[in-house]
Amino acid sequence: MKLKLTSFALLLTVIVSSAFIAPVLKPVPYKVDLEKSSITWLGKKLTGSHNGTIDLQSGSLLFDGKKLSGGNFVINMTTIKDADKSARLEGHLKADDFFGTDKFATSTFVIKKVAAAAANQVNVTGDLTIKGVTNSITFPATVTWNADGSVSATAEKVTVDRTKFGIKYRSKGMFPDVGDKMIYDDFELSVKLVAKK
């Protein structure tokens, strides 16, 4: 009788404990819509600047309910376009001086951490890989839920130090005597991802 009571008490403890353990929900993936998403770039030099676009190849975002928890995207580096339609500049950006797209056709970003900021603002930290070199970067982003059930994640200004990825062409830090041909080490990306279940 004592053994039965002990067994019953143990079973009751397991049932009661289970009732208070919240179920672990798997993050829900949202696929990035390549047609509605975009990346623009801006690079500055001492005597001016250049800007343009670059295409996404694929991407997905992970959500716990309405909270961004992870994700990644792949950039097709061979699609770099200059807004002024300079074939010479586009060719140079694809060459080894810059992104070496013959060897490194894609760049990737993988979200490692998302910290809430204010309202629909978050700070995203992740691993950016360019030319086979990976560095951690952090930037602010806005997450907006749309009426059609899709979600938009927008980062207006992602600052990247190109020298950390081995892109040293006309860097004043690397070549102090470059003079007025200097190109700033930092370039900026503006990323808009629209994703849906």
From TrEMBL:
InterPro entries: Lipid/polyisoprenoid-bd_YceI, TTHA0802/YceI-like_sf. SMART domains: YceI. Keywords: Signal. Pfam families: YceI. Residues 1-21 form the signal peptide. It comes from the Bacteria. This is Polyisoprenoid-binding protein YceI. It comes from Pedobacter africanus.
